[in-house]
User: What shape does this take?
Amino acid sequence: MDACTLARSEFERESGPVQAFLQSLAQKNHNVTYIDLDDFFCSRTSCLAMKGGYGLYWDDNHVSSTAVRHFSQWYFSQPAMASNVR
Assistant: This one.
């Protein structure tokens, strides 16, 4: 599992340009909300392949259906985030 761990700083550096692009699209379109997934998929220091006993991905960059289900439960349990849903 250690081989699948990525430092959060490295993840943020690699994903930063894509995230900035998606955020800019959301700012230009009033019916689009950008949702930052980093805090769900990563701890403060690292991004792991597993969380809570389940796999987060089914290959090198596709999120597993189990992770999607857990993410939606996490997302809607946080009032500040859930209030962003339009």
User: Anything to note?
Assistant: The mean pLDDT is 89. The first strand starts at residue 6 and ends at 7.
